[in-house]
Design goal:
Blueprint lengths: L1 H18 L3 H28 L3 E11 L9 E7 L5 E6 L11 E2 L6 E8 L5 E11 L2 H7 L7 E12 L3 E4 H12 L1 H25 L5 H28 L1
Helix pairs in contact: 1-2, 5-6
Amino acid sequence: MILITILICAGLAYFFAVFLKNKKVGYGLSFTFIALFIISLILLISNEYGHFGMKQVTNEKTYQIQSVQKGSNLLLEKKLGTSGKENVYVYRTPETAKAKKPQTTKVDVNVKNVVKTGNYSAATLTKKTTRWEYKNNFYSFLFGISDNNKEFVKQTNTFKVGNDWLVLTTTQASQLQKKMKSKTFKAQMKQEGEAYVKAAVTKAMQANPTMTSAEQKKVMQQAQKEFKAEAQAKLIQEIKK
């Protein structure tokens, strides 16, 4: 509407100044519409560059997320550009679990990504998005032609994942996968794992010589779990160096 007002004011100002025979009245009306033209132009510029008639509205939505790799709890960080200062996180949701390409966070300088690791029951992503919206229908009617409603301002993505999740860059994940597929590494882990479990069972038997086979099995399972966690943590530290 404001653009139409500007055009009408310009047209009427010209008409009254040129075609009205009574020049005194014509110039008076012309100056009036010139003033309205200038005011309308200022309002349009204020809306375009200062978001006049608008307000910032923040919406928050939480999604459940899944790992990008089946069989593992993995959140990937992908570095962008040559400096590596910009990044996006790669993930899936239950709805996109079977999609060819995983989802990523928005690429924008006004997007902040935060990862929190803790004792969370489920892995989630909370998107907190701020946009410019018109204060009411009047301003929307006046400046709606500018097509700047819902204009993006900023976004904060907060990932909350359990302690059993790994947060790695795509390069680190590739190195980890390559290392774990190595025959030498598998043989080493098997040998060290057997020794770790044997030592744990021996220690438990010394503390309780009357342990049943079921109790021994339980100790073995716990030792295997501990060894796997320790070996993985050690490998991650090596890759992150």
